[in-house]
Specification:
It catalyses: ATP + H2O = ADP + phosphate + H(+); Couples ATP hydrolysis with the unwinding of duplex DNA by translocating in the 3'-5' direction. Residues 298-527 form the UvrD-like helicase C-terminal domain. One of its GO terms (biological process) is recombinational repair. Helix content is 47%, strand content 14%. Strands 13-14-12-15-16-11-19 form a 7-stranded parallel beta sheet. A 6-stranded parallel beta sheet has the order 3-2-6-7-1-8. It has a two-stranded parallel sheet with strand order 4-5. The protein is α/β, with parallel strands linked by helices. Strand 9, helix 14 (298-308) and strand 10 form a beta-alpha-beta unit. The chain has 4 domains: 13-105 and 205-290, P-loop containing nucleotide triphosphate hydrolases (Rossmann fold); 122-195, Arc Repressor Mutant, subunit A (Orthogonal Bundle); 298-392 and 513-606, 3-Layer(aba) Sandwich (Rossmann fold); 396-505, PCRA, domain 4 (Orthogonal Bundle), CATH 1.10.486. The chain binds a DNA duplex through residues 63-65, 99-102, 105, 123, 125-126, 199-201, 203-204, 235, 264-265, 267-268, 368-371, 374, 391, 394, 427-429, 500-503, 521-524, 542, 545-548, 557-558, 561, 582-586.
Length: 613
DNA sequence: GGTCACACAGTTTTT
DNA sequence: CTGTGTGACC
């Protein structure tokens, strides 16, 4: 099985072409379900095994840790490696595979000194950033009521994505709001510097600046990474785009994989045009289309194809499959959001209880906004069908976790004023005890877990929670979970790095292990697949969302989102909309989504007739 | 220093 | 409707 050619087995001709493509820039346009990750990992494996490229000379960049982990795992399998979570890519025989952010953090810890970034810098997450923004606003005397800190933060983040520094920003600032942002931006950066902190955007921005300023450092990394492979290239922002160009500037061995039709993160700075402009950047760019789909039925693909064709701003792949035609797409018109939920329960019930072919895990319900989940949850609870909600508050964003981490962060870096303020808020007495403890324990070489336990004990933090209270118990459980993460990282710095850049697999509770119907936003559904998919709330103003109706670009992104949703379905797709809906306590009557009308009617059957009593 | 009431805002999300 | 965050009050 270690035979080189086994890597090419079970790959279709365009996939093989992508995998065996030699030197030079390569763009793989990969439709949904076309084996994109497969092509990418196989290509890396092929480079290593067949072309005898040293794994250390290959760089794999992704957007999420989940994707990076999957790459590593698949690659290890292809290379017959044993990888455990502990050693992961440090085992030297696998290429570096990680997110842009973790890659940049690594570079800045090594070479950031050139930009006066201390190697032990702290990474500020969104909550930390907000606190720092508030401090900055306070300092320049701009009221939080006049301008919302979050809005300021968003604007600064956008500027950083566009590689506009605090000193450059004033010259671009137009109008009252941006003039204020300009002032705050400068002070915000000053505060970050004083705290020895970088925010997520800084990780990218500072790395780009480092490469611009110190050519010999850029050359060092160019010489290390002869081959750069990037997943989901349509999701790159300007900073990531420039960074990529810097990295591949010497060898031009870029392999980018993506699909403009699945670009759904424009709102956070992603620009799918980066994918299209590769042609201009590299005149010798080789483009390979992966259009054979292994996931869905032909009817689902045809319906999705025809729908997405209404977009004119980007090229569209023509998906086809050897799977059968399959069933028509079902459309249900509900009277209300309750009726919509009832329909879904009824349908899932039929599959589950009238046949033996389905498990709850075979179903997904996709919605546009999180606020829609409640009604669905209640219906599932009522019907006793197990469900799993994807999303919600993320583990490291939870209050109790942030509280614990604040202590550890301050311990690691007393410059971290945001952490200090957070601890202070928990009570002056606790703070005092903590500070005394800090002085006493500095010399002792404590592991992360020992440290955490001692802090919890001396400050009496756990006393805030009552074991008999259900919510409090959940919080205590979360802290337990954090303790178990702490056991994995003896070194506090390593632990904090992990916390800042890697989301915990979560939850590990009982219900989650039971086969369950998945409820999630359509965004969260990207990259997943289910035999039976329901997309709900297909109404004008909801999907497409009212906030996107103004510009064409907004509508096109919503359409791509719907396309992503449709192409999650393997066997059967249900679309539903409600004539009347209660949303945020407000009644509304909406027209059916234009996207449903974009699907040719011969792919659709109406589910209502079957329900008439 | 801690609790409670009121105002208020509410796409989408990863790092 | 509901979670969050701020400010007033004990």
């Amino acid at each position: 099985m270690t035979d080189n050619f086994s890597i090419l087995d079970h790959l279709n001709p365009p996939q093989q072409e992508a995998v065996t493509f030699g030197e030079g820039p390569l763009l793989i346009l990969a439709g949904p379900g076309s084996g994109k990750t497969r092509a990418l990992t196989h290509r890396a494996a092929y480079l290593i095994k067949k072309n005898k490229i040293n794994p250390e000379n290959i760089l794999l960049l992704t957007f999420t840790n989940k994707a990076a982990d999957e790459m590593k795992e698949r690659l290890a399998k292809l290379l017959d490696h044993q990888v455990t979570k502990q050693q992961s890519s440090s085992a030297a025989k696998l290429p570096f595979a990680g997110t842009f952010h973790s890659f940049c953090a690594r570079i800045l810890r090594i070479d950031g000194r050139q930009l006066n970034i201390p190697p032990s810098f702290t990474i500020y997450d969104t909550t930390d950033q907000r606190e720092a923004i508030k401090m900055a606003m306070n300092e320049v005397d701009i009221s939080e009521k006049q301008f919302k800190p979050i809005a300021i933060l968003k604007t600064i983040s956008q500027a950083k994505n566009e590689l506009i520094s605090a000193t450059e920003y004033p010259q671009y600032a137009r109008g009252l709001f941006q003039t204020n942002v300009a002032q705050i931006y400068l002070v915000y950066q000053k505060i970050l510097k004083k705290h020895q902190a970088l925010d997520f955007d800084d990780l990218l921005f500072q790395t780009v600046r480092l490469f611009q300023k110190e050519k010999q450092i850029l050359t060092k990394y160019q010489n290390q990474f002869h081959y750069v492979l990037i997943d989901e290239y349509q999701d790159t922002n300007q900073a990531q785009y420039i960074l990529t160009r810097q990295l591949v500037g010497k060898w031009h061995n870029l392999c980018a994989v993506g699909d403009a039709s699945q670009a759904i993160y424009g709102f956070r700075g992603a620009n799918y045009r980066n994918l299209l402009s590769l042609k201009n950047d590299f005149p010798d760019l080789k483009i390979i289309n992966l259009e054979q789909n292994y996931r869905s039925t032909q009817i689902i693909l045809d319906a999705a194809n025809e729908m997405i064709k209404k977009n004119t701003n980007h090229p569209i792949l023509n998906l086809w499959t050897q799977n059968g035609k399959g069933q028509l797409v079902s459309l249900y018109e509900a009277r209300s959001e309750l009726d919509e939920a009832a329909f879904i329960i009824k349908k899932i019930g039929e599959y589950l209880f009238q046949t033996n072919d389905f498990s709850p895990a075979d179903f997904a319900v996709l919605y546009r906004t999180n606020a829609q989940s409640r009604v669905l949850e209640e219906a599932f609870l009522h019907a006793s069908i197990p469900y799993r909600l994807v999303g919600g508050t993320r583990f490291y964003e939870k209050k109790e976790i942030k509280d614990c981490l604040a202590h550890l962060k301050y311990y690691a870096n007393p410059q971290n004023k945001v952490a200090y303020k957070r601890i202070e808020k928990l009570g002056k007495r606790r703070l005092k005890k903590f500070l005394i403890f800090l002085k006493k324990s500095k010399e002792k070489n404590l592991s992360t877990l020992e440290l955490l336990d001692k802090i919890l004990k001396t400050t009496g933090y756990l006393d805030l929670y009552d074991v008999k209270n259900k919510d409090d118990l959940a919080r205590l459980e979360n802290i337990k979970e954090l303790r178990s993460v702490a056991t994995e990282f003896l070194d506090l710095t390593k632990f904090l790095e992990n916390v800042a850049l890697f989301e915990q697999e979560y939850p590990t509770s009982l219900e989650a292990s039971l086969p369950s119907v998945t409820l999630m936003t359509t965004h969260a559904a990207k990259g997943t697949e289910y035999p039976i998919v329901f997309i709900v709330g297909l109404e004008e103003g909801l999907f497409p969302h009212s906030r996107s109706l103004l510009e064409k670009e907004g509508i096109e992104e919503e359409r791509r989102l719907f396309y992503v949703g449709m192409t999650r379905a393997k066997r059967k797709l249900y679309l539903t909309y409600a004539r009347r809906r209660l949303y945020f306590g407000q009644k509304s009557t909406n027209a059916i989504s234009r996207f449903v009308n974009d699907i040719p009617s011969h792919f659709i059957e109406f589910a209502n007739e079957n329900l008439l009593e």
